[in-house]
Design a protein that fits this description.
This protein is an alpha+beta fold. The protein has six helices and eight strands. A hairpin with a 5-residue loop joins strand 3 and strand 4. The protein is elongated and about 105 Å long.
Length: 216
């Protein structure tokens, strides 16, 4: 004995699917209406966002807040212990000009360094102290005023690939420019400029009070 199974026509399947969807929607509406049911099956929202300003500050990374231009005069003399300067020895008088930038590394600002109140009217930021970049010698404004070389040094230049090299005085000029920058208060000016920039930026975004501090 065989049993035949009747298959539902296509329109009947479509109706059944529509009824199922309507039933699910109706059940969802009833859950939101009945007291207590919504809290039992609803979802909870947790705001775990970091400080709103952190990513923007890190994207800015290094902020070059100040730049100083310096000029030094280098008087470099090399002589021989047993020979007179006319035979062996050099003396170069060199004027070196260059710049040094002072910057604040905003990329080091972490979540604990940024505080924002709930209504976004107050922001407090703690930044690392400003640092000095490497001195950059300006070749267009640096030059040798005079060069004195002994006889043996002049002969040696004839067989040298780089006669009359100024590399030694240039290195010395860069070192003196760096020393001058460290004693010029350039980092303090950089922190002042950074504070002014951030205060203006945050106030344009709606913050009424902005407090900037430096150090760990």
């Amino acid at each position: 004995m065989t049993t035949s199974v009747r298959r539902l026509p296509g329109w009947a399947k479509a109706v059944a699917a529509l009824v199922l969807v309507l039933a699910v929607l109706f059940a969802g509406i009833r859950l939101t209406v009945l007291p207590g049911i919504r809290d039992l099956f609803g979802t909870q929202t947790h705001d775990r966002s970091g400080p709103a300003l952190l990513k923007s500050l890190q994207d800015m990374s290094r902020y070059d807040a100040a730049s100083g231009t310096f000029q030094v005069v280098v008087d470099l003399e090399k002589d021989s212990r047993y020979l007179p300067d006319a035979i062996r020895g050099t003396r170069t008088l060199y004027v070196g000009a260059g710049t040094v930038d002072a910057y604040v590394d905003l990329g080091q600002v972490g979540e604990r360094d940024v505080s924002v109140n709930g209504d976004r009217t107050f922001a407090a930021l703690r930044l690392p102290h400003a640092r000095l970049g490497r001195p950059a010698l300006d070749p267009d404004h640096s030059y040798a005023v005079s060069k004195q070389r002994g006889l043996l040094d002049r002969i040696g230049d004839l067989f040298s690939d780089n006669p009359g090299s100024e590399q030694a005085v240039q290195k010395l000029a860069v070192r003196h420019i760096g020393d001058a920058a460290r004693g010029s208060g350039l980092t303090a000016r950089a922190e002042t400029n950074t504070t002014g920039m951030l205060q203006g930026l945050l106030r344009s975004l709606g913050f009424k009070q902005v407090r900037i501090s430096y150090g760990s």
